[in-house]
Target: histidine kinase
Amino acid sequence: MRELFNSLKSRLFMLVFIPISVVSVFDLIVTYSSSDKIATLVQEQILKGSAKIMSEQASITNGDIEISIPPAAFEIFSSPYQDRIYFAIRQLEGKLIAGSDEIPAYTNSLALEQAQYYSSILRGEPVHVVAYAHALSNGTDADVVVTQIAQTKKGQAAFRQELFMLAIRKHALLMCIVLLGLLAASRWSLRPLLVFSKKVTQRQSGSLEKINLQHVPTELLPVTVAINDYVTRLDQTLSSYEQFVASSAHQLRTTFAIITSQLNFARHHQRSDHRSDQGNKQADLQSEILDAIQNTVAQGSKVINQLLILARLERTQTIPTPAHPTVLADIVKQVMDELAPIAQQKNIELGTDGLDHSVTLVAPAYLLHEMVLNVVENAILHMGQAGVVTISVFRKDAYLYLRIVDNGPGIPAAERSNVIKRFYRIETDRATYSASSGLGLAIVAEIVQSLNGRLILSEPRSKRGLQVDIKFPNG
Model:
């Protein structure tokens, strides 16, 4: 019930439909009363017509009142409801001339050629009665007959019901039209709200672009202005946060650079100081420690750079468009040259399986470089032993593909949706677990999403290793 009242469409229906329903019910009550009056009026006109026909047939013959009732006086009552008809014709003083004495004589005053109507009960049935006074045409002023005709109310009730049912059908049709009109009006009126909601929902995650007020309906302006105001304040807050992160990262990178310089100096000084066997052993130990420290510093610098890239991707509302498209194959070659020494150290073969130089993307080269670098480096890092990493760039159907295939340990199918989460690492090999930051594929996923591409992790045809497909719409 609470959800019903929270719906604008439901409120609109209730605010319009309920008053219309109340008015309709009231109108039906009035219509029922009007139908009864109309049915009674019709019955009275028939009674009066029949009484007039009978009265006009009365005349004085040889001092006596005679009357011949024509069939038309009764045919006027013909109907499928089989009402009973009673009549009595009396002199003004009450003497019965013709008809049934079951109808009591009318005792109230009655003007000539005027009718009076009243209800009564005959033989246990309610009847409607007319009393009609008529002066005989060939008599004196005192020669007056009073004709009374009674009719049961079956026909009157049926006619009243027919009129009322007709009114109900009209009201029902009207209510249906109102409902359909409300439905159409509500959809048409609330359509801008749905369009507005769809536009907001379809906005890119992290976008802080203000909503254009030009085509916003007047009723939605307060909400839109409030959203824009909130976006402005949120943008200011995030800008302050971004500035803080950038400053902190600069300080950290400076610190790591100093530490790296000090480590290089210590390594150089350590080589020149130790000459004896004992000194050589100590030098080897120191060298091992210095290497470990340097690796840790390098890993820390890498994590900082990755975090900065993620922060930049989150805050960038639109990817800057370069002057010329970037050739993806050239980026792949650059990455292979950079990672070749690391691959050789681990006895990993870096190769290609076709690089289509016609595949170009309208995207900054540094983003594509970071994307390819993270995927290939991730494959090399997690390769436990000698293996092969194959890179290919090609077109297929309406898409441009970058494919990296390795024959390493691969990623279980259940984990493939998790590895693109930040800092998520699969704890299978302790060596690679400690060396991995858990940010590589997360950065790739962010870059691919910002370029309207799709990242697909699957098992290669060899059933060993991992196949990474990155596809972009062609054009």
